[in-house]
Amino acid sequence: MSHGDERDYRSEPGPRTEDPYSTIGGTRQTRTRLPGDDSDGYGRRPVRNTRSLAMVVGVVVLLIAAIALANLGGGEGKGSGAGGGGKDSATAGAGPTAATGTKPVQGKNGTIAAGFAHDEQGAQSAAANYAVALGSAEMFDRDRRHEITMTVYAPEVAAARQGDLDKVYSGERFLTSIGLNPDGTTPAGLTFVSRSNPVGTKIEKFAGDTASVAVWYSELFGLAGEGSKNPVSESWYTNTFELRWTNGDWKVTDFTQKDGPVPVGRDQAASPAQEMADAVEQFGGFTYAR
What we know:
Elements: H1 7-11, H2 50-73, E1 105-109, E2 112-116, H3 120-134, H4 142-152, H5 155-169, H6 172-177, E3 191-206, E4 210-224, E5 233-246, E6 249-259, H7 273-282
Antiparallel strand pairs: 1-2, 3-4, 4-5, 5-6
Helix pairs in contact: 4-5
């Protein structure tokens, strides 16, 4: 996430479209009615009786049932390298967002998901969840920051990184530059917002116990409320996490950040400050898992 000078601080530590008609009604050929022997000179259109209608309904029900069964079992039997779509990482493009059938998260460590699968899907799930934790407002609270650091990073990395993070997040110049009080608290009447919202993940490299995973996400950051000098804005980034399988889970050893890809903004009017503050209070954030 980049917000002026703080970018370095936080960066430390087309789908295939199926033609809905292509498999309905066979080949989609146009049926032409030829002249017949009827008195009007044309063949008569056959009358659809209730039996034929029942057959059509039966076929539709069977198709729906088959699709449901396929979705339930789609992630099994595809090998441990199924990163959301069961593809080989060397040739895979974007994986589907539908569930693969493999449970990606087995538990949690505090408020952060833990117990990820030891495969590509698990690495992607870990990276997405860690992006949420590292981009949260909780990083500005000393105790929660320490918990997040010890949970997300590999042990030897966490110990070295914690001191650097404390120095950055307690710096008065940094805190006041983003609109917080010098001690890191939020000014009265305002709500501090820092939320990372992943929209996709991608395996860059995978080698059993190590993985490199890119997470594309949007970031909401700023102060919501009347009189805010740093209103909540949206930015887009891609973080690439270097992960290592450590003590039965994926842990971060390093990550880098770059801007974008950034979508074109719609011509929507920005919400009033109080409406934004209310939304932040009323809508809870998500954790993410493939």
